[in-house]
Structure formats: C-alpha cells, structure tokens
Specification:
mainly alpha; 90 residues; single chain
Amino acid sequence: MHSGTSTLGNNIAGLLRRALAHPLARDLDLESSRATEIHARLIREKTFLRRLYRSYYSSYDEIIARADPGGLILEIGSGGGYYRSSRTRF
C-alpha cells in the first residue's frame, strides 16, 4: 500500500470524526476527567444513548440476579458511573 493513501485515509477519518463529534466532545482529551464528565452528560441527555445504556444495564441486572447474594457489584469501563443511577433492583 502506498503510504500517501494511508495518510489520506487517516486525514479523512480525522475530518469525519471531528465533523460528526458532538460539540461538547469535539476536542476532548479522552484521558481527562473532563472527558468522563462530558460523556456521562451526553449519555444522560441523548435519548438513544440513554436507552442503549439502560438496555445493557438491564441485561447486566439479569446476570447479577443469578449470582450468589452478598457479593460486590463492580462496574468497569464506563467512566461515567451511569449504572448506579439507572439500577433497577440492586
């Protein structure tokens, strides 16, 4: 593959990502605490994302219901901590 093609592809991908990004998230450093706050806000405010997370967490709740009682529930990777506010039974 020609290196110029790869560079062009990366440039186009970067332009699309920037154009399609939500204005609040457009130039965020994904490693920052601000990014976590913004992403949590977008999950709360965007109907599609909120429904998607609720669907995931509903499945998660079903799995937890089958686990031995008395254990810890640990959410890993969402950053926004949305599970706690959307829990239905635990």
